[in-house]
Design brief:
homodimer, 89 residues, alpha+beta, Cell Cycle, Chain A, three-stranded antiparallel sheet, 2 helices, 30% helix, elongated
Chain lengths: 89, 89
């Protein structure tokens, strides 16, 4: 199953219950060299800064999950968007 | 199954075969209002620009998948990283 299929399957369940605007960002990094410092924590801040150009984000509405394993790390950002928080471009 | 579990399960299979550095980024947007224009295509360019601060990306090594459905859109970026392309910060 591809990742898009995964999103599709979770979405069909979720959207029936919740009508909230939601943004979910995942960054998965397969690292060949374990010794190198991770840049995902910095990346996270910069990605959030980019998103704030498009939508008003209440930082309390951002949930961050970060997992680091041997040669794999995953950053997960879940953002509940405000109902009328879009800035039109 | 949570998304982190999903990444974990696909990673354990994939890493046995490939030792390549890989970065995978997913942005899923549950949209309450369908009429609003999507900002994911612009977001994609900005996220890539941010990542290029940390790693040298060959744009030929970036695969982009974008799917838009009724009230849900998913942007998927798959990046094969160069073996020694890291710029240390």
């Amino acid at each position: 199953m591809g990742l898009l299929d995964y999103f599709r399957s979770t979405q069909s369940k979720g959207s029936a219950n919740v009508a909230k605007e939601r943004l979910q960002i995942l960054v998965a990094h397969d690292r060949a060299a374990r010794s190198r410092p991770s840049y995902l924590p910095q990346l996270q801040r910069e990605i959030l800064a980019v998103i704030r150009k498009y939508v008003d984000i209440d930082m309390d509405a951002v949930t961050v999950n970060y997992e680091q394993e041997e040669s794999h790390e995953v950053l997960e950002l879940n953002i509940i968007l405000p109902d009328a928080g879009h800035r039109e471009l």
